[in-house]
Design goal:
- The complex is a heterodimer.
- In chain A, α7 crosses α10, α10 packs parallel to α11 and α10 packs antiparallel against α12.
- Chain A has two domains: 72 residues, no CATH class; 215 residues, MetI-like (MetI-like fold), CATH 1.10.3720.10.
- Helices cover 78% and strands 0% of the residues of chain A.
- Chain B is α/β, with parallel strands linked by helices.
- Chain B is built from 23 helices and 26 strands.
- Chain B has an eight-stranded mixed sheet with strand order 20-21-22-17-23-24-26-25, sandwiched between helices. A six-stranded mixed sheet of chain B has the order 6-7-8-3-9-10, sandwiched between helices. A four-stranded antiparallel sheet of chain B has the order 2-1-4-5, with helices on one face.
- In chain B, α4 packs across α5.
- Chain B is globular.
- The two termini of chain B are 51 Å apart.
- Classes of the chains: A mainly alpha, B alpha/beta.
- At the A-B interface, α9 and α10 of A face α2 and α4 of B.
Chain lengths: 314, 715
């Protein structure tokens, strides 16, 4: 087990290294000079040259790469070119805000989705199952920006129950005004909920038809035990892989949702950094998102291993 | 399968009407019918079945695939899809199971009626420790503390002969061998000392050696537990070993019921007689093998309606007009004697299917180049892997699937290759066909070396070696009519024009008994036996010199198997095609082979002309295989050589003899640590055995064992 963990952590480091190279390479080949960007079109060539010198843009790329990566390892992500603030300070509260939104989806919506999926699978072809399947199909088909706008029209413009914008005062905690979180969380949940629910349902149905469930029924144990002891644990295995694959997708969803609701999270920051060509910020955010993705995959694998004795000792 | 009726709704039965137990038979099935209503029409899985089971007896339920025998077993458990319509009565101790509430069923299942399944690997939950899976049954039906339940589980494991009974419950199913898994399933069924045990093909899919040990356990159990047992199987040899009475099923009907000895010595239904004559018989003294007879045509389809006629009439050799106009007498439950669903039971005997002609084995030709010769064939998978990928102690060795395999196949002869799963027999076939690139060794076709990869061989060489696989459906393209594959093979191999090739394809289909009208059919419209005949026709299309058949008849019913085997022998006699026939069925090997190669753990342990391999001296492994094979004769005394454990994993190179750790004749240190020599039989230079024991000694010991056994039988 320890060996597995060490191996996987090593692989994550390797993955992040490759990704950092890729991010660096991409930002290198992008057109446009950062110094010109900062100083504006009217800047004199002398000023641009001075700034390039100060930013270290004249160094050969390996030096710059090592400087960047070395800083990242030490926890110093450099300085934002546009806002002139340390990136670490900018990212901190945004990361916290995004985590609140994502955790809601992850720890509230997914368990409910799994539960609904299990129920629908066990009561296959019942009225409730049909309703759940149809609703989830609709939810999967709609992209987040549509769901978000529809929710805004219903709950804030028409009914006026909830705010349409989720702006947070800098330096305050969004949890002090939970009502602003409801609509973004619901939007973010939509597709993922539907996807996970359908997956759980399909797996439950598949497991219900296995021979070992037949054995369990013919042992004469109560149906409740058959479901909870024999069906659910085995149906969860493929569901967990799907959930872990969806983490990356959840991160993508965050970018859209945060922008629709003007919520100050990582996604919004990412978009801003792209719009303002704030390269150091963009690089740092990309690396951070890659790290989150890699770690969540590791956690999913660990859960999978824990549930599946067949690969536990592999 | 569609949704399973897990709840089964029915009004509860008034207990006061229930007959006194003890008077009623344990299980009485009367006029049972099961019809599945599917969107594509009704499937009559069981048309009419009546029988009774008493305490302490084993009723064998035998028949070919699709005859409804398993459906009868699951109907007895009331475990059928919701699309099933069940008619008739199933009375368990006088109470009708069909009218029980789901709560009553739940209390009976696992407690009073328990089941053992085919394919134990899938019958156990992969993510729960096996001990817990049995404790569950005890908790459901007995109020027991955790401690008591664990003790009971250990007791059960001991009674089914599992090693280390106190600890093995901690294992997961995948950590047990197939035989051990089936022992766990049997222990699970015995947990609450049920009154009725249903066994659905419990040994099908296990290796012969494992099958023999499980059958020993079942025959021992039937004396120990006071339960009635229904034993469902397609294998007449297995039925002969364990059953007291046998009910034969055909097209959803019970067509004959008799005590086991009566049934085998004096079958009263033409179908039963036919089935018995389809099973490859043991060799006769002079080395001749009686030609198998086969039942022409195919089973009355389950989709066809019930008719007032004998459903076997179209295939019956003694059919009369009355058979097509009127239904023969039904077999009623609890009937005495030997009822048969036939108008003329007294006319039935073995010779109605024609007198068997002896099939002589071919004499070995002296001199000349053999058709195929294989010299020092090695096939390893994977390479050495170290603990830290590039350095450190070896963590993973290559799988040594074939080690130093040598053999020859003469033109027009059949080489049978036998061995348990994992013995390397299929690997050898695939290496020769060029589907696997051999690690080292020479393969010569008519003296010419063959390239490792089939892609590097000449068209001519490829045409000369053809392969037929176990699952014909998987080797035929489901989208194309079967004529297409044949025409393509013929054009590739013989360079004929389209029209000429089509004519040839029709002739081929005729030759395998299918007729030209099958050209336009698609594989799914054909039965398994017909598909296998198409696969054979496709192999013959290139006019090959050698056909490699890898378990080509293993999945077929005996009557179909006989058709295919006869097809192969006929082809061989007419065209002089040589066959390399891989199978785990010793009866089939005896029937078809001129020469036999026995493999174990990737090594050849015995080889020679069939009659020498089948008589002492045997290699200890061949001896064990032969004594494990079920014989379709209730009076045959099973020999007592049993192999424990499983086929080795082939990753660790063997220090001594590959068979040493399971060998009943192990000599100790010598066998464990020194590779054995390949000894040549002085009586026949082609007969070779891999063993440390001198062959004269082996022969004496083995003859002695046979004599003691015969004495036991006479007593």
């Amino acid at each position: 087990m320890a060996r597995f963990l060490v191996l996987r952590l090593g692989l994550i480091v390797l993955t992040l290294f490759v990704i950092s190279l890729a991010i660096f390479a991409v930002t290198e080949v992008l057109p446009g000079d950062v110094a010109t960007q900062i100083l504006g079109q009217g800047a004199t060539p002398e000023n641009v040259a001075t700034l390039r010198e100060r930013l270290g843009l004249n160094d050969p790329w390996p030096v710059r790469y090592l400087g960047w990566v070395g800083g990242a390892i030490r926890g110093d992500l450099g300085e934002s070119l546009v806002q002139r603030l340390p990136i670490t300070e900018m990212v901190g509260p945004r990361l916290f805000n995004s985590m609140i939104l994502a955790s809601f989806t992850f720890f509230v919506a997914i368990p409910i989705a799994v539960a609904v999926g299990i129920w629908a699978g066990v009561h296959r072809n019942s009225f409730g199952d049909r309703v759940a399947s149809m609703t989830s199909l609709a939810a999967i088909s709609l992209p987040e920006f549509v769901t978000g706008v529809v929710l805004i029209i219903i709950f804030s413009t028409t009914l006026g129950w909830l705010p349409s914008s989720s702006l947070v005062e800098p330096g305050t905690n969004p949890l002090t005004r939970p009502q602003i979180l409801v609509l973004p969380a619901l939007t973010l949940t939509g597709v993922m909920f539907a996807y996970v629910m359908r997956m759980a349902r399909a797996n439950v149905i598949e497991v219900l038809e296995t021979n070992y469930v037949r054995s369990a029924v013919l042992k004469g144990i109560p149906m409740r035990s058959v479901i909870w002891r024999h069906v659910v644990p085995n149906a969860m295995l493929p569901t967990i892989s799907v959930i872990s694959l969806n983490v990356g997708w959840l991160l993508g969803g965050l970018i859209v949702v945060e922008n629709v609701f003007s919520y100050p999270g990582l996604g919004r920051l990412l978009l801003t950094s792209i719009q303002t060509r704030d390269m150091p910020l963009l690089q740092s955010l990309s690396l951070l998102i890659a790290a989150v993705y890699a770690i969540s995959n590791l956690l999913a694998d660990l859960t999978y291993t824990w549930l599946n004795p067949r690969i536990r000792f592999a | 399968m569609t949704t399973i009726n897990l709840n089964g709704a029915a009004p509860s039965v008034d207990e006061s009407h229930v007959e006194e137990t003890g008077h009623a038979p344990l299980l009485e099935v009367r006029d049972l019918s099961v019809t599945f209503h599917t969107p594509r029409g009704s499937v009559r899985a069981v048309r009419h079945a009546s029988f009774t089971v008493h305490r302490g007896e084993v009723l064998g339920l035998v028949g070919e695939s699709g005859c409804g025998k398993s459906t009868v077993a699951f109907a007895t458990m009331r475990y059928l899809p919701t699309t099933a319509e069940v008619g008739g009565e199933i009375r368990f101790e006088g109470r009708d199971l069909n009218s029980m509430s789901s709560a009553e069923l739940q209390s009976i299942r696992g407690d009073r009626i328990a089941m053992v399944y085919q394919d134990p690997g899938s019958a156990l939950n992969p993510s729960i420790r096996v001990g817990l899976q049995i404790e569950e049954v005890l908790h459901a039906h007995r109020s027991m503390s955790r401690q008591e339940a664990q003790e009971r589980v250990a007791e059960l494991f001991e009674s089914v002969g599992l090693p280390n009974p106190a600890r093995i419950g901690q294992r997961y199913p995948h950590e047990l061998s197939g035989g051990q898994q089936q022992r766990v399933v049997i222990a699970m069924a015995l947990a609450c000392e049920p009154d009725l045990l249903l066994m659905d093909e419990p040994t099908t899919g296990l290796d012969v050696t494992t099958e023999a040990t499980i059958l020993d356990l079942i025959s021992e159990l039937k004396d120990r537990v006071n339960a009635g047992i229904i034993f469902v199987s397609h294998n007449l040899g297995v039925i002969a070993r364990v059953a007291d009475r046998v009910a034969v099923m055909y097209a959803g009907q019970v067509i004959e019921e008799a005590p086991v000895r009566d049934l085998f010595s004096n079958p009263s239904h033409p179908y039963t007689a036919g089935l018995l004559s389809c099973v490859p018989a043991p060799v006769t003294g002079d080395g001749a093998v009686p030609l198998l007879r086969n039942i022409p045509g195919s089973v009355y389809p389950a989709s066809a309606p019930n008719v007032d006629a004998c459903l076997f009439a179209d295939r019956c050799p003694i059919v009369q007009d009355i058979c097509r106009e009127q239904a023969p007498p039904e077999i009623v439950g609890a009937s005495e004697g030997h009822p048969a669903r036939c108008f003329f039971p007294e006319r039935v005997n073995a010779s109605i299917w024609g007198d068997p002609e002896p099939r002589r084995r071919r004499r070995r030709e002296v001199g000349g180049t053999p058709l195929l010769s294989v010299d020092a064939l090695h096939q390893y998978y994977g390479t050495d892997r170290k603990k830290f990928i590039f350095f450190g102690p070896p963590a993973r060795r290559p799988v040594r699937a074939n080690v130093d395999v040598d053999f020859e196949i003469g033109a027009g002869r059949t080489l049978g290759i036998v061995g348990e799963s994992g013995s390397g027999k299929s690997t050898a076939a695939r290496s020769i066909a060029g589907l696997e690139r051999r690690t080292s060794g020479e393969v010569l076709l008519e003296g010419e070396p063959l390239a490792r990869d089939v892609a590097d061989r000449t068209d001519d060489q490829r045409a000369k070696i053809r392969m037929v696989f176990q699952n014909p459906a998987a080797s035929l393209n489901p989208q194309l009519p079967i004529g297409h594959a044949l025409v393509r093979s013929i054009r590739q191999a013989r360079g004929l024009g389209r029209r000429e090739a089509r004519r040839n394809a029709r002739a081929l289909l005729d030759a395998v008994g299918l007729g030209g009208e099958y050209m336009e059919r698609r594989p799914r419209e054909l039965s398994g036996g017909q598909q296998q005949r198409v696969a054979l026709a496709a192999a013959f299309a290139a006019d090959p010199d050698l056909v490699i058949a890898d378990e080509a008849v293993s999945a077929l019913d005996v009557s179909v198997q006989a058709q295919v085997l006869n097809l192969i022998t006929a082809r061989q006699q007419r065209e002089g095609t040589a066959f390399m026939f891989i199978t785990h069925d010793l009866g089939v090997v005896r029937y078809i082979s001129d020469d036999i190669l026995v493999m174990y753990g990737g090594y050849v342990v015995e080889t020679g002309p069939a009659e020498t391999v089948l008589a002492p001296p045997w290699s200890p492994y061949t001896e064990a295989l032969l004594s494990a094979a079920p014989i379709p004769d209730p009076d045959a005394e099973p020999s007592r050589i049993r192999l424990e454990g499983a086929v080795p994993t082939l990753r660790q190179p063997f220090k001594g003899c590959p068979f040493a750790d399971r060998c009943p004749r192990n000599l100790g240190d010598l066998c464990d640590n020194t590779p054995p020599p390949m000894r040549v039989d002085p009586a026949n230079e082609h007969h070779k055995i891999l063993c440390h024991i001198p062959l004269e000694e082996l022969a004496i010991e083995q003859r002695k064992a046979i004599e003691t056994r015969e004495k036991l039988v006479r007593r």
